[in-house]
Amino acid sequence: MFNKQKSVLAFLLVIGINVFSNAQNFKADEPIAVNQKIKKGVLPNGMTYYIYPTQVNKNTASYYIIQNVGSILENDQQKGLAHFLEHMAFNGTKNFEGKGILNTLQKQGAVFGKNINAYTSTDETVYNLDNIPSKDGGVVDTCLLVLHDWSNFLSLTDAEIDAERGVITEEWRTRQNAGARIYNQLAPYYYNNSLYADRMPIGDMEIVKNFKYQVLKDFYKDWYRPDLQAIAIVGDINAAEIETKIKKLFADIPTPQNPKKRFEIVIPEKAAPTFKLALDKEISASNITFMVRHTAEKPTTNYAGLETATQRALAFSILNNRLAEMAQKQECPFKSAQAGYQKYTRLNDIWFLSVSPKPGKQAEAFSAAMTEWVRAYKFGFSKGEIERAVSENISNYENYLEKLNEISHKQVIGMVKDDYLNHEVIADPNAEFEMTKAILNNINSKILEEQISKLYTAQNRVVAVRGVVNEENLTQEKAFDIIQNSENDASLQPYIDTFEGKTLLGNLEIKSGKIVSEKKTSEIDATTYVLSNGVKVHYKFADKNKKQVNLEAESSGGTSLYLSQDLPSAFRSTSLAMMSGVGELSNVDLEKVLKGKIADSYVAISSLKETVTGSANVKDIQTMMELVHLRFVQPRFDTKMYDLLKQRLQNSLKNRENDISAKMQDSLSNIVYGKNNPKIRSLDQKYIDDLSFEKMKSIYLDRFADVSNFEFYIVGDVTPEVLKPLLEKYIASIKGIKRKEKFKKEVPEWTSKKIDRDVFIKMETPKSSVNIAFMKDYVYSHKNRILNSFVGDILTLRYTESLREKEGGTYGAQVKGSLVKDPVTKGGIQITFDCDADKVEHLLPIVYQEIDKIKKGEILAEDIEKTRTNYLKSREDSKNFNSYSMSVLSNYFEEGYNRNDPATYENIVKSITAKDIQEFANSLLDKADSMEVVFKPLK
C-alpha cells in the first residue's frame, strides 16, 4: 500500500461522514489488494526486483538500486564510510573504469547530479539513473549493468579513494551550516543517546581523511549483498523482457555465506521528559519541537491499518488548518505551526508539534500552539470542518485516480522503497478507495478525537528548542509549565466554526461579453479569440496531462514604471492582495470555499510585467475562471493583512541579522550595484518604512486596471465548446480601458567594469565562497542563446573534473550561461562554489584556465556531444507535458517563433561546432564586465 506518511496518498485518503451510501463492509484483518501493474520478484541469491511499465515519460526509463544499508551499520572506525561508499560507486566498477559510468550515461543526455545521483541516510542508500533513453536495447543493457556493478563489483582503488576524501570533506564544509550544528546538539535528545545520535551520514571528517583502505572494503563486503538489495526499473519498457534480462544478468552475484545480521536500533524508553536548548551564533530564527516517541506500528497491510492511518490524517489536517488560520492574524505569536504523526526510524514513530515563533515570542508561541493541540484532542472537530476536509480530500483522491497513468517515476520509486524497506503494500488504488469508502461511512468527531489523543502519552517526551543568542529563549521550566497548564486548562472551550455557507462570487452580478472573432493558427494548431472588451485569448488543446487546464495572462509594464521610493509597495502589492482574499471573502474564508475544488489563481508583479495565472481540474474550470475574474474586478485589500505583512517583513529583517547567507547576499549586491542603488531595493528598515497601504492598493489597481492590455493563454484538456461560454462570461465581461504600455528599459549598472574584492566575514565553520561573473550587452538570437548555454554547461563538466575530482577542492561548482532579451539584451556567465579557505587562491586560477581553454578552442569533442545530447533529450522529454504546449503558444504569440519548428532549436543544437563555441566565448567575454567576489573567514 502507499505509505501513509510519505506517499502521494498520505493526505488524500481522508474522510467524511456518510459520503458513500453503498460502501462495502470490510473485516479488520482483510488485506489491502496489491497493485498488479507492478511486477515483483526475488532472485535465488536473495535480490528483490520491481518492474513498473509506464509511458508518463515516453521513450525513457529510470533505474534504481535500493540498499537496505546506511550509516547506522557503521562501527566507530567507519563513521562516514556508508556515505563515502556511495561516492565510490561513481569512481570505478568492474565494467566501468574510473568515471566510466558518468561518461557512458552522459553520452545519452544524462546529467550528473540530476539524472545520475544517489543519497545515503542512516538506514538506506539509494542510487538512481533517471529518465534514460529506453528504446535502444544497448542503453537498457548498460543501465542494468550499472546496477549489477553497484551491487557487488565496485573497484575501490586506493587512488580513487584518496581522490574522493577531499570531495567529501568539501561536501561536509558546504553542508556544515548553523542548522547542521544545531541538529548535532539536539540529536542526543531526539534519539535518547542511541546509536542514531552518533551516526550522521556525513560522518567524522578525521575518519574520512585518514581511514585505511581495507576499512572501507570491509564495510562494502559486509553489507553490500543481494539479500539487502532491491532493484527497480520504471518507465517505457517491456516488463517481460526486463525481467528476463534481470534474471540472467544478476545471477552471478553470489549468495552471501554466514552474513552479518542486518540489525535495527530501537530508541530506548525514557519515562521522564527531556529538554534541550541549542544555540548557535549564526541562528537568528527560533523553533520549538515537542515530540513524543512511540514504538513503530506495524506496516499498513489491512483494512484496520488503513482505517487508523486515514482517521489520523484527517484529524491532523484539520488541526493544521486551524494553526494556519491562526498564523494569518497579526496578534498570533507564531509564524507557523504544524502537528503530525510519522515514521521516525525503523523501530520508532513520533507524534510532534513544531512551532516557529515570531522574534521574542517563544513562550507565547508554544503556549498558543499547545492550546490548539489540547483543544483538538479534548473536544474534537466541528461538523463543518470535517465536511470540508472530506470534500477536499475526496476530490483530490478522485483526481489522483483519474491520473494514474501520470504517476511520475519518482512516485513509483517511493512506493517501491516503502514496500522493500518498510514492508508497506503497494496498493491497488481503486481497491483501496473501496476500503476508504467504508471508512468514510463510519467517521465522526469522537473517533478522530480518540485516534489522536492516544498518541499523546506521558512517556518519551522531548522538547527541543533552537534558540537565538541574545533573545529570551524558552527554558525547561517554562516549557514544562506551558505543557502542564495547557493540559489542565479548565477554561478551554471547543473550537467554534464561524464559517457559514458563503460562495465565491457572493452577490456579484456579471454581464457577459462576446467573442467577436476567432482565428485558427494551423502552424501550431491554436485558436485566437478576440473578445468584445479587446482581450485576445490564445487557446491550444493539450491532453498530455489529463483533465488539467492552465491559464496565463500577462501585460507589459511591471515595477519598472515606478519611482524608487514606491518599489517596495509595487513589489508587495500582489502579496497584500493574495493575503487579503478576494471579493467578499477573506483569505481564510476563500480557502474554505475552495475546499473540495481543484482550482487556483495567483497574481504577481515583476520588474517588467504583471501576470495572472490559474490552474484547475477540468471539472473545476469554472471556479478557476471565477477567481481570475475576481482578481481583476474585486481584488481585496485588508488593513489587518497589511499590518501582518509589515510584521512578517520586520521579522524577516530581524532573522537576517545572524544569517551568513543573507549577509553575503547583501554584501554582494552592495559591491556589484552600490549600497544605495535606487533600482535595487533589498530588505532593510528603509524598505519597510517606504511601504504604504494606499500606495500598494493603488499600484495593484493601476497594474490590473486594463484587462485589454493583457494577453491570455489557455492550454489544457478542455474543448472549445466548454471554454468559449466561460470566456464570454468571465473574461469578456471585464471592462478594459485599452491603453498601450511598455516596460521602461532601465537596467541597474555595475559599480565598475572590473570588480575584484575579497570580503572577510565572521563565520562559525570557516570556508570561502566564490562568486565570479561576466556580463556584456549582446545580440539576442536563438543560436546565441543556445551557445551561451553550451559554454556554461561545458564549463560545468570541466570544473567537475578539475575543481572537484582532480583537486578535491569543492563539492561542486555551479555555472550558468544565459542570454536575456528584456529589458535589454545581455549575455553572461556566472560561476559560484564553496571551498576550503586555505585552498581558494590555488583554485581560482583553475577557474580562469578552463575559460581560457574554451577561448583557445581547446574543447573536448565528448563534452560537446554530452551537452548536445542532453539538450535534445530534454527537449523531447518536455513534450510529454502540457507545459510544453503552453510554451509553444506563448513563444509563438509573444516571441514570434514556432517552438515546434526544428529550425528554432533542434537544428541549431545539432549544428553547433567547437569553432562556434570558441568564437562565441571570445566574442562574449572580450571586454565584458567582470566580477570576482570571494568571501573569506574573518580570523
From TrEMBL:
Signal sequence range: 1-23
Q: Sorted alphabetically, which Gene3D superfamilies does this protein's record hold?
A: Metalloenzyme, LuxS/M16 peptidase-like (3.30.830.10)
Q: Which residues form the Peptidase M16 C-terminal domain?
A: 211-391, 691-870
Q: Which InterPro entries match?
A: Metalloenz_LuxS/M16 (IPR011249), Pept_M16_N (IPR011765), Pept_M16_Zn_BS (IPR001431), Peptidase_M16 (IPR050626), Peptidase_M16_C (IPR007863)
* Pfam families xref list: Peptidase_M16, Peptidase_M16_C
Q: Member of which family?
A: Belongs to the peptidase M16 family.
Q: What protein is this chain from?
A: Insulinase family protein
Q: Which organism is it from?
A: Flavobacterium hungaricum
